[in-house]
């Protein structure tokens, strides 16, 4: 089986390239996005509307309820199954997205980890309550730098889990990952990475945030809350949704919220680049180069026919 992956930071044009490659090669897209899996979270995740999908089937979008916790392990199994089903139809699976942990879970595999230790978790929770979750993130970054890069500083659940694994096993979570096996071992993977100069990326992100507010991101979150999705739902822990929740809670006004979302997106983009640059075999393209799509098409054609 041959699988094409399009990765890179937010706002780098991955979705458009994924659709173009799928149309050219007879492919189907598998979303590699930890928030797009949730139904009802549309604007903040920039899900492609049907009119922009070009008739290309998109998998692993809207597959979980916002009250669920959709994990990387579940993604790896779901994506492996989707890829095999696509290949069985003699079509090309094209993985598209910027969630580096999900990409690694599929391409390189996940470490299952020790069972939950409730007493240890309780102690870590107390530290987070007393000193702030950022203090746990700083600790994690010291003992497990790759996980510190991958996990956002306020992602309490993942930070505590990574520290739990470290404290229970004496080894960093990222060290365990290095010994894992892909759930799709038969796949030959071509990975294309898109990158954007920082000034251009900042302009794209700012435009995207303005568009999200114009399309009604605040109303989308209000509707989800009205449906009974709690503010503590894991689906709300991602970028945009967390900040909009804080806006609704009166933490800051809309202007400050927009500015914060732009800054957080740029920080996230930096972490994404750091993550993917450490992944083996990624072939990088400048997304602002007018020849990028043509070069990517040629590369994929050569890969699929070799």
What does this entry look like structurally?
The chain is an alpha/beta fold and 306 residues long. The protein folds into 2 domains: 2-110 and 180-305, 3-Layer(aba) Sandwich (Rossmann fold), CATH 3.40.50; 118-177, Orthogonal Bundle (Histone, subunit A), CATH 1.10.20.140. The chain has helices at 14-25, 72-88, 100-107, 118-131, 133-143, 145-150, 156-169, 173-177, 198-215, 217-226, 241-248, 254-277, 292-305, and strands at residues 2-7, 27-31, 58-59, 92-96, 188-195, 282-286. The chain has a 6-stranded parallel beta sheet, with helices on both faces. The mean pLDDT is 94.
Number of domains: 2
DSSP E strands, number: 6
Average pLDDT over all residues: 94
Sheet with the most strands: spatial strand order: 3-2-4-1-5-6
Q: What labels would you give this structure?
A:
306 residues; alpha/beta; Rossmann fold; Histone, subunit A; 2 domains; 6-stranded parallel β-sheet; 13 helices
Layout of helices and strands:
Layout: E1 2-7, H1 14-25, E2 27-31, E3 58-59, H2 72-88, E4 92-96, H3 100-107, H4 118-131, H5 133-143, H6 145-150, H7 156-169, H8 173-177, E5 188-195, H9 198-215, H10 217-226, H11 241-248, H12 254-277, E6 282-286, H13 292-305
Parallel strand pairs: 1-4, 1-5, 2-3, 2-4, 5-6
Helix pairs in contact: 1-13, 2-3, 4-5, 4-7, 5-7, 9-12, 10-11, 11-12
């Amino acid at each position: 089986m041959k699988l094409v992956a399009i990765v890179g930071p937010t706002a780098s044009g991955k979705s458009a390239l994924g659709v173009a490659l799928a149309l050219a090669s007879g492919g189907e897209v598998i979303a590699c996005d930890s928030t797009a899996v949730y139904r009802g979270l549309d604007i903040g995740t920039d899900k492609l509307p049907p009119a922009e999908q070009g008739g290309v089937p998109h998998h692993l979008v809207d597959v979980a309820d916002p009250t669920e916790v959709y994990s990387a392990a579940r993604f790896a199994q779901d994506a492996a199954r989707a890829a095999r089903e696509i290949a069985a139809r003699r079509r090309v699976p094209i993985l598209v997205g910027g969630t580096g942990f999900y990409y690694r879970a599929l391409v390189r595999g996940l470490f299952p980890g020790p069972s939950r230790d409730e007493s240890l978790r309780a102690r870590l929770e107390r530290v987070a309550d007393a000193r702030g979750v950022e203090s746990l993130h700083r600790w994690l970054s010291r003992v497990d730098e790759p996980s510190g890069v991958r996990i956002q500083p306020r992602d309490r659940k993942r930070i505590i889990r990574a520290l739990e694994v470290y404290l229970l096993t004496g080894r960093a979570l990222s060290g365990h990952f290095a010994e894992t096996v892909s759930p799709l071992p038969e796949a030959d993977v071509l990975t294309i990475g898109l990158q954007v100069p920082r000034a251009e990326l900042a302009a794209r992100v700012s435009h995207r945030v303005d568009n999200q507010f114009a399309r009604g991101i605040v109303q989308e979150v209000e509707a989800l809350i009205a449906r009974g999705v709690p503010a503590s739902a894991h689906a709300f822990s991602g970028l945009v949704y967390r900040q909009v929740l804080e806006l609704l809670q009166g933490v800051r006004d809309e202007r400050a919220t927009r500015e914060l979302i732009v800054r957080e997106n740029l920080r996230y983009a930096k972490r994404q680049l750091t993550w993917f640059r450490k992944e083996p075999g990624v072939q990088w393209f400048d997304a602002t180069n007018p020849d990028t799509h043509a070069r990517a098409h040629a590369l994929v054609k050569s890969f699929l026919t070799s």
